[in-house]
Sequence to fold (924 residues):
Amino acid sequence: MHTRRNFIKISSLGLGATALTAGIVNWALGTPISKNVSNGSQSSAAGKKVATYCEVCFWKCAGWAYVTPNNEIQKIIGNSDDPQCNGRLCPRGTGGVGMFSDTDRLKTPLIRVTKGGVQSYREATWDEALDFVAAKMKSISEKHGPESMALFNHGSSGKYFTHLLNSFGSNNVAAPSFAQCRGPRDTGFELTFGESVSSPEVTDIRDTRCLVLIGSHIGENMHNGQVQEMSEAIDKGAVIITIDPRLSTAASKSKFWLPIKPSTDLALLLAWIHVLIYDDRYNKAYVEKYAEGFNELKEHVKDYTPEWAYGITTIKPELIRNTAREMANAAPSVIIHPGRHTTWYGDDVQRSRAIAILNGLLGAWGNRGGIYFKEGIKVPEFPHPEYPKPAWSWRDTLNGRYPFAKEAVTNTIIEASIPGEGKTNLIKGWIVSGTNLIVSIPLKEQLMKAMQSLDLLVVVDTMPMEITGYADVVLPECTYLERYDDLRASAHREPTLALRMPAVEPLYETKPAWWISKQIGERLGLSAFYNYKDFKEVLEWQLNKVGSSLAEMERIGLKKIERKTPLYIDPASDFQFKTPTGKIQFNSKELQEAGFDAMPKYTVHPQPEDGFYRLIYGRAPMHTFSRTANNRNLVALMPENSVWVNPQVAELWGIKKDQYVWLKNQDGVVSNFSVKVRITERIRWDSVYIVHGFGHHHKPLTYAFGRGINDTELITSVKIDPIMGGTGMRGNFVTFLKTMPKKEARL
Amino acid sequence: MRYAMAIDTRKCVGCSDCVVACQTENNVPVGFCRDWVVEVVDGTYPNVSIELRSERCNHCNNSPCVRCCPTGASHFEDGGIVVVNYNKCIGCGACIESCPYEARYSHPDGYVDKCTFCIHRVRQGLDPACVSVCPTKCMYFGDMDDPNSGIVNVLKNRKFKSLAPEAGTKPQIFYLV
Fold:
């Protein structure tokens, strides 16, 4: 194998730290309390309260960083005006300061060097590193065109590098959040209602009377506003119905838990549609007024009876009927939740379509307690010249596949980075910002091949994630607590604007992403696209345009803007959906014309062989992606993941509680590390469950290294959704190895 | 005045935000905690139930920790809040042994530490950090002697229990079931 790019472990290189305060709002650290009270933390001096919004996950809750007179960030508290958090951050946001204080952080720019055949990183100055990146980008552009640069991104910093590539002449910008996550859901809802449920989702959970969760584990996924609203709904007596092979936290709060056989969700959904239609329990007035294709749908689901579904799903017909009635009783204040991570079995758009159709039949879209209309605020773009038009785009990497992909598909960009005979539109350089591709992208072999073929791989991150070990240049970004960033302009029940400003000066030699992008841009002769000295100028200009100012935002952190459009459908209006015909599409002509099923059909998916169990993965509330496994404020709550095993299965294997085992998948791939067994009645006998984001194999992550296992490495069978390119990852099966397997040659 | 806390196990999702918020509010050293989350699973698949609850010092009316403290470091403050004066604490650990809730730990600085109901916040009229951060709003804090307080109201209308009532400590943390 070509080993131009060996994996290098970044050692703890670094310089001393300096910290200075920014910020303008003073706060008092509590009045002095009587001396005879134990009180570890408090001094009575005044500190500062600095506006920020969280960057631990994508929910981006607005908050305040409390900075002590010694320039230490003591705590981060939610901004009570923010409807996304209502003053209450989640554990990860509350522990977000651990991202800042992590001593394993990337500290200086690094450049790959080869000495005597050995590859290593050397510390570099910013000028050296940026010159290197710019020179490589120029040479790629001269040889292959600017389109041969691609960006993989996640989070706030992606925007600056998107701007860089767009200015440079490429729009090959991809994020795992589409093809590895919410893509099928968005596509399914767009095909049905003409728009997606966005992020944060426009689900009216707080006012719903019935919430249906299909594999969606709110409460374990700590998507803050949704968790808060689910709790409010519980208080108000809403019926919760959860479909999950695992007794999730949400399932334990549900009136109905349907412990479904994994991979059969679509059969259940079709049976529910059948019951609503044939028992005459759908929302007739709504369907007549707003939907089309009802007759075709009725005919289509004729044979999808609860009795038919029972044999597939193992859910009793009575329970299917009862739960359908619960939904109908609550309609239109009912939500069949669209979920978020929906790349499961490769027919995920169709499953999402079935969910959308159910919502349509019940009249949930546009009604209180169902799905509301978001309203956002448009923040004008800071003036720059028009972007050059690329000669080709990410669409050309699809090669005629995935006609409904509205965003770039990570895997086709990766594919386009592997040279092959007669292959045109090659990608030669990557910038990777804020996403650890090694852990987030399945099909590792393809990923490795692509990375070995590149002329340039730049990684911008705050932490020495696995992906940094493959970079030619590593650029250390400062954390969200040390920088200004783009305004958070959220579309929600009411539009909001939130400001992020530095609570303290950046530690080490780290820099904000806007600065890194600007520096590279200027070296590429793109100064006209960066017509400002400091990002504060951009913010001030934008805020003035929307009737605010930086000074105001520094004071309030978050601004609510009055809503102008209705939150729900006005029954008196002639409401049009954003579909080609203005009606909800039960029978999708768009899909039909592209050669797909116009209505969802049940497909049988492979089941585990004897001795193998379906690998299900998910989230824990105190962790997010793979980025918190090293956060010292959070790791004590959950230092490693464990594999959940049903007691009967454990007995069969003679596996004891807390024993460490290795997992081997259907393709013979063995987990990098061993994992602790949790024997629990919360999981079905045909499946095992692990929390995603552990099993880091990069030693510089000194805490996270070797703790738990990484589900992604066991996901070697990927079912691609032909409609939009999503990578279905739930079709992998594992078995247990009780002793340490012999090391075989690995990638 | 009698401070108490009620925690709704029907709403708690076990996210442990209460633990993190307590740590940052009270500077609890990493690796220690003043509050924690317990998950109790009952039954056999698929007839399984879970109880999730956030636990901490019960600020008992009849506190074995206060009674057994040889130096008087463990004592009651106004409103029945049990606190440790760490200047008086000699770190003998008698209170740790006496507590049926395992709510106390030895602080690396040599004294015994535990939940204070965030007395520094309560005296300013604020809720304890755990209560004010909880995303599910499953915790209620207030004065049991005030008939209009939220906690009195919620305890009036809901079934509740306390932990280890047989220990006779008269705990002041109530779990809504």
The radius of gyration of chain A is 26 Å. The longest helix of chain A spans residues 126-144. Chain A touches chain B through 58 residues (CB under 8 Å). Residues 294 and 586 of chain A are 6 Å apart (CA to CA).
